[in-house]
Amino acid sequence: MSIQSLKDVVRNISNFPIDGIEFKDITTLFQSPESLHELSDIMYEKYKDKGITMVVGIESRGFFMGPATALRLNTGFVPIRKPGKLPYKVLEESFTKEYGDDAIQIHADALTEDDVVLLHDDLLATGGTMLAAYKLVKKMGVKKVYINFLIELESLEARKLFPEDVEVDSIIRFDI
Q: What pTM value is reported for the model?
């Protein structure tokens, strides 16, 4: 399979979740065993030599490939969730995204200063959620953070939100 083949599998849904949005549906990638294997292989090859100690996935679509990648890299997995979903003491970061204000949380003891983190989500559009997640993880004093997305909407230029010393990568890129 190729990146173009993966790109071709992504389904476009017009006017979802609101009018004017062309939603990139990744569920089709997971329905195909070939696509799922390819995504897993790409993620593994990209990060196998980076010293990753923990994969952190953002609710909810970061929970698909995040744990799968953690398994392949032989690391743990940490969820970042919406408020009220985690049962222990949390750290929180508020942010504004394209549909309004929101917040995310992580368990206060989930990461240490020895961790090298792969921060993963499905889509880089305006970047608000991932920027908040990045700030949250950095508050925990980790050694290094890598950022990964399955899909990036390049024309929105959200990659520019992140510091230059942070490696930001996406597997599939669309110029919308």
A: 0.95
